[in-house]
Amino acid sequence: DKDVTHHINYKAKYRLQDKIICLFGGTLGPAQGLDFLLQVAARMKSYENLCFLVVGNGTEKAKLKSIAKKMDLSNVIFKDFIPNKEFNMLVKSCDIGLINLSYKNKTSIIPGKILSFMAASIPIMGTVNKESMEFKNIINKSGSGYIINSNDIEEYINLLTKLIMDKKLRERMGCRGRDYVVKYFS
């Protein structure tokens, strides 16, 4: 039956078995403010087991890849957009889900990817604009990750480091996210 989707182990497919993978998936445009993520990656190069996996397409992709190359960010890997069914398998292969919203946004946004991350039991590390309080409230209420204001790189690195260094914390937050999705979104 060709409709059966076989599980794809993306850690193996992308040769990242020994890495803690922080996944950003989706549109790579100005609204995401992903130059911030590249600054974080540059400051976290010393964590040899850390990988920022950026999956998607968009108007900023070529620019971001060029910046990453200039900054010699071997801890950032870009992959093309993959279909939703496969994306959900990819999420299950990753350790931390990244949500990025530029602080320049002035509208309230709740990114759809948070449900994928929560359903897959992985914690969320995110940056939001101050207008996205509802999104911030979901993460804080569920205890499924950390959300900060978009331009605070020190706090972001501090909290991401906590997640990287503490597998039990990642598991706890991931389980809380899963429980929250099951309770409120199933």
What would you say this structure looks like, in words?
- The protein is 45% helix and 17% strand.
- It contains eight helices and six strands, in the order H-E-H-E-H-E-H-E-H-E-H-E-H-H.
- Strands 3-2-1-4-5-6 form a six-stranded parallel beta sheet, sandwiched between helices.
- Strand 2 (50-55), helix 3 and strand 3 form a beta-alpha-beta unit.
- Helix 5 crosses helix 8 (167-185).
- The longest helix is centred in the last third of the chain and has 19 residues, at 167-185.
- The chain is globular and about 45 Å long.
- The chain starts with 9 loop residues before the first helix and ends with a helix.
- The model has no long low-confidence stretch (mean pLDDT 88).
Shape: globular
Unreliable spans are none
* Strand numbers in spatial order across the main sheet: 3-2-1-4-5-6
Strand segment tally: 6
Characterize the biggest β-sheet.
6 strands, parallel
| Secondary-structure element pattern, one letter each | HEHEHEHEHEHEHH
Overall radius of gyration: 16 Å
SSE layout and pairings?
Layout (H helix, E strand, L loop, with lengths): L9 H4 L6 E6 L8 H10 L6 E6 L5 H10 L5 E4 L4 H10 L2 E5 L12 H7 L4 E5 L4 H10 L2 E5 L3 H13 L1 H19 L1
Parallel strand pairs: 1-2, 1-4, 2-3, 4-5, 5-6
